[in-house]
Amino acid sequence: MKIKLLTLVVFALTISALFSQKRQSVVDIFGTQPVIVQVPFKIDSIDIKGDKFEEKELLKTELVIPEHEAFTKFYEVGTTGFLNFEKPDKNASLQMFSFYVSSDRYGKGTLKITSPNMFELYVDGKLSKSKTEKEDSIKMDKNIKATLTPYPGTNHVVIKLLSSADDKLNPTMKIELENEKKDSITNFYISNDNRRRMVFSDIMLGKRVTNVRISPQGKYVLISYRNVTGEKSSETFTELYDIKKGTRIIINTNDTKRQLNWMPTSEKLYYTAKLGDQTDLIVIDPTTLEEKILAKNITSENIRFSPDENSLFFSKQDKAEERKSDLHFLKSVSDRQPGYLNRSSIYRYDFATGLSSRITFGKLSTWLNDISPDGKQLLISFSEETITERPFSKSTMLLLDITTMSADTLWHNEGFARRAVFSPDGNKILISGSAEAFDGIGNSLDADLIPNSYNNIAFIMDLKTKKIEPITKDFNPSIERCFWNKKDNLIYMVTTDKEYQTVYTYNPSNKKITKLPLNEDIIISFMISGNDLTAVYTGMSVSNSSKAYIYDIKTQKSTLIADPFNERLSLINLGNVKDWNFINSDGVEIEGRYYLPPNFDATKKYPLIVYYYAGVTPTSRRFESSYPPHVFAAQDYVVYVLQPSGTVGYGEKFAAMHVNAWGIRTAEDIIEGTTKFINQNSFIDAQKIGCIGASYGGFMTMYLLTKTDIFAAAVSHAGISSISSYWGEGYWGYAYSAGASAHSYPWNNHELYINQSPLFSADKINTPLLLTHGMVDTNVPIGESIQMYTALKILGKPVEFIQIKGENHGITNFKRRIEWNNSIMAWFAKWLKDDGTWWEGVSD
Predict the structure, then answer these.
(1) Do strands 188-191 and 92-103 pair parallel, antiparallel, or not at all (unpaired)?
(2) Which of 49, 130, 447, 450 has most Cβ atoms within 10 angstroms of its Cβ?
(3) C-alpha–C-alpha distance, residues 66 and 756, integer Å
(4) Cα–Cα distance between 486 and 531 in angstroms, integer?
(5) DSSP H or E segment with residue 446
(6) How far is CA 563 from the centre of its chain?
(7) 528 neighbors 548 (Cβ within 8 angstroms)
């Protein structure tokens, strides 16, 4: 795409800004070629409403606003300050003109357009104002005005001008931009360059890959996409991609073919179609796209085929009777959660007979982990609450023979083993869990340390001897998902590997672990064809959104097959991202990275925002997140992201620093890292440092402020102010604490629950703090922010509190997310840039 820069305009506006001028004119502009429009043939002199046809009706003629590169016709302002155009030789014409408006801070600008012609003004694709009268002379009072607030992004302005061969004047137009009367500070910039800085809506808008699935023989790939074009405008669709031919066919739009996926063995697709109360199972031949009903009126849409494709398995939920009394007598500490009393059972549907038979029955929910390669055995698990003993829920794994309906118990009342899958020969199982599973056989820590139960390792159990081997006991990355591939007999492990998410293989024969050389920092999904050494994966990196690849396991070569967000990304100017690590006072390396603003100038001083992990997982190198560093950097902040002690993915000892600590070592790392980063980078303004975190990270924000005054502003979203109230009130407070506060309770560890809770040290907080919280948060109840807000208000400390209507632990509503993010940016602008204008705007 050829981009034309209005360098003269930008230069003129910059000079204008230096002298605090409040009005500036567009000196040149780009337009489309004029389009001829005709007066319609008049069958009658009036329409159905009794109105005569007027020329202004031509202005309403629908004309699609083209992409910016279509505006190729250049016009320069004349000596009178007006832009002059040519009128058509006959009939009338419509012509469009385009430019972009940005600003260096939050401010309102008035766009004034003066013209004797009729025209329409569009701002960001929406009709803003119309002038439906024309004059025979240039009258300066004949104009329209529109208010623009481009910050933190840009406003795209398009003018649609109507001119007629009968006009006495050639079409002409003057475009001016004025500051508010009280504002002589904001600099507005007008440009024809459609490249811009990143804004928060970029995290939600645009087209992205959401999933890839490869066929059993490795010939085809299903590529799923989601395209969001507005607050209430989005679509999903799935392509069938032929690897050999390179052809693509859209075969599913907006999930009309539910569960579209590959059969386990045959090279065919299946999906479920729901008509009323009936659900049919349909297969598709990918070579002809011919569809055939495989089964009618199946009883569930959530299905899983047996490897021989002769049957399928599904879960069916039995719902508990609704409580008739207004008094809710709790059955358990978890009985506050919706659907807690419902139970799921496993069923099998036989294609030959059409029989749906119940496989499990009882008062506990049962879950299908895997089906044996011969289809005769199932790995079934269920869990029971053990509320008097950590981790408060323990699981049992059964090996069920569905031909005899007899079961072998593989483990019973195990608190730290989670899922299991079969080996290709069906003689072993691959298990994921934490180091404390199976009496701690995977625990490599000293006796005085408790493993972090969120740091996962992998085990292999021999089904004949029941012997269990912790195959990744000394492997630092945390195992997030693993499977045993039948073609090469290797175990593939998707891991949290420091701030990356990577894929490793484990060879059971020689016990060798090998990292796959995949192209992205964060591997989101990874799948291998059942009968071919071809894989597909999706991933993203620190400066790009999701992409899809084919991976040849033999050659270790990745081939890009989908990068739909690149079109949007190509219009965004991103700053550089650099790694920055330091050695803490305990001699441990703490990794991190920092984001620079676009057009970074090392001779300047920039405010700094520090961001750290929530919960126990690292702040990953994902391009998109709830707190995207590139968005903050786009507003001329340097953003420092670090991985302090306690996070998973750096080994068992590093992760164990999270247990029973609640900020002790973590806060030291953040303070120490921030101080060293400032001292080693002269482009940081040491007096303008902000920090932000959410959930456990929100707790860390509050806790940090009780320990240091190095921050000039702070943000805590859904943070924990009192560990004891969160422990008892959050849906999962006590369960999360089973890992984070192992064996510690409010009655046996006052030091932890009181002294480590920021609420009890609120009088030590001096830093301006913004609290934000979803009003229906069930994970960290909103009271955690309410009580800190109340405390700081009573203490007379600088604090503000934003409650987000209808939102839970995360902010998901499109409009609310943007407003919420802008309020955070405005808060930082107030305290880190000494500019409270934006905050006044969002807090009115």
Answers:
(1) antiparallel
(2) 450
(3) 58
(4) 8
(5) none
(6) 17
(7) no
- Reduce the secondary structure of 594-643 to three states and give it as a string: EECCCCCCCCCCEEEEEECCCCCCCCCCCCCCCCCHHHHHCCCCEEEEEC
- 732 by Cβ neighbours in 10 Å (0-12 / 13-18 / 19+) ranks as middle
336's enclosing H/E stretch is none
Q: What angle do CA 627, 633, 638 make, to 5 degrees?
A: 105
Q: Which residues pair with 415 in a beta bridge?
A: none
| Backbone φ, ψ for residue 18 (5° rounding) | -60, -30
Residue ranges in the chain modelled with pLDDT below 70: 1-21, 301
- The total number of residues written for the chain in this structure: 844
The pLDDT value recorded for residue 279 is: 87
Residue 25 lies in a domain: yes
Give the tens place of pLDDT for each residue, 236-266. Answer: 999 999 999 999 999 999 999 999 999 999 9
Output the pTM of the full model: 0.93
CB atoms within 10 A of CB 237: 17
Residue 747's identity, in one-letter code, is W
> Rounded CA gap, 520 and 502, in Å?
8
CATH number at residue 71: 2.60.120
- In Å, how far are 426, 530, 774 from 217, measured between CA atoms? 21, 7, 47
Q: Are 117 and 173 in contact (CB under 8 A)?
A: yes
Residues 609, 677: contact at Cβ < 8 Å? Answer: no
Task: Evaluate whether residue 706 is within a structural domain.
Answer: yes
* List of residues 6+ apart from 460 with CB closer than 8 A: 423, 428, 429, 430, 431, 468, 469, 471, 508
pLDDT at 301 (0 to 100): 65
Contact status, residue 278 vs residue 291, Cβ threshold 8 Å: no
Q: Which of 653, 710, 672 is nearest to 582 (CA)?
A: 672
**Which pair of tokens denotes residue 778?**
């069930």
Q: 662, 793, 785: which is closest to 730 by C-alpha?
A: 785
Beta pairing partners, 337? none
Nearest to 347 by CA among 310, 400, 303: 303
- Residue 750's identity, in one-letter code, is H
Peptide bond into 618 cis (omega under 30): no
Is residue 748 packed enough to be buried (19+ CB in 10 Å), middle (13-18) or exposed (0-12)?
exposed
Is residue 212 one of the residues assigned to a domain?
no
375 within some domain: no
| Residue 246 Cα distances to 220, 560, 735, angstroms | 10, 12, 49
Give the number of C-alpha atoms closer than 13 A to the C-alpha of residue 112, restricted to the C-beta side.
16
The partner residues of 116 in beta bridges, in order of sequence, read: none
Please name which of 644, 579, 583 lies closest in space to residue 613, comparing C-alpha atoms: 644
The residue segments making up the domain with residue 106 are 7-194
Give CA–CA dist 143/24, Å, rounded.
Answer: 16
* Sequence-ordered list of residues with C-beta below 8 angstroms from that of 718, at least 6 positions apart, any chain: 694, 695, 698, 772, 773, 774, 777, 779, 780, 784, 785, 809
Q: What is the DSSP letter of 755?
A: I
* 420 contacts 370 by C-beta, under 8 angstroms: yes
**CATH number of the domain that residue 801 is part of:** 3.40.50.1820
Show the tokens assigned to 672: 């120490």
**Count of alpha carbons within 13 Å of 129, Cβ hemisphere only?**
15
List strands edge to edge, sheet with 417-422: 417-422, 428-434, 456-462, 468-470
Residue 836 makes CB contacts below 8 A (sequence gap 6+) with 829, 830
CA distance 546 to 103: 30
For residue 152, cis peptide bond before it (omega within 30 degrees of 0): yes
Cα gap 504→479, rounded to integer Å: 10
**Residue that finishes a domain, picked among 141, 168, 194:** 194
Which of 129, 161, 194 is a domain's end point? 194
Report whether 726 contacts 780 (CB < 8 A): yes
Structure tokens at 373: 């390669």
Picking from 615, 695, 592, the residue whose alpha carbon sits closest to that of residue 454 is 615
Name the domain count of the chain. Answer: 2
Q: How many Å apart are CA 656 and CA 450, to the nearest integer?
A: 6
